[in-house]
Design brief:
This protein is of the alpha+beta class. Helices cover 27% and strands 27% of the residues. It contains 4 helices and 5 strands. The chain has helices at residues 59-65, 98-102, 104-124, 128-131, and strands at 9-13, 22-29, 40-48, 69-76, 80-86. Strands 4-3-2-1-5 form a 5-stranded antiparallel β-sheet, with helices on one face. This is 60S ribosomal protein L27. Residues 4-31 form the KOW domain.
């Protein structure tokens, strides 16, 4: 079977609190791990997308509306819907692993690093579809 859920693939989370949110696969565990016997992935995504910005808005308001709120989650493959998009964000320097996702203090640091990476991409104007709100 061809493995199409790879690092950098944009997916939509289908179940749980983040249902309907876009995310990027950081790392996959096709055969599972000791704690989770099923195939799953670490997903970093957008909990709250940036809002629309107009020319008439002040610089302060533009900065506030351009914020991205990320999430970091372990998700079963059955609860992910792949899209045709891929994003080339390098998550290796952030050191994201299953231990980081389960430890609250380390997860907070990882989320800050993810927020910075997403914010940078958003301000550069890359991957516009990923940063738009999903409407269905």
């Amino acid at each position: 079977m061809v493995k199409f859920l790879k690092q950098g693939k944009v997916v939509i989370v289908l179940n749980g609190r983040m249902a309907g949110k876009k995310g990027i696969i950081v790392k996959t565990f096709d055969d599972g791990t000791d704690g989770r016997k099923y195939g799953h992935a670490i997903v970093a995504g957008i909990d709250r997308a940036p809002l629309k910005v107009k020319k008439s808005m002040s610089e302060k308001k533009v900065q506030k509306r351009s914020r991205v709120k990320p999430f970091l989650k372990l998700v079963n493959f059955n609860h992910l819907m792949p899209t045709r998009y891929s994003v080339d964000v390098d998550f290796k320097p952030m050191g994201i692993s299953p231990e980081v996702v389960t430890n609250p203090s380390k997860r907070e640091e990882a989320r800050k690093a993810i927020k910075q990476a997403f914010q940078e991409r958003y301000t550069q104007g890359k991957n516009r579809w990923f940063f738009s709100k999903l409407r269905f």
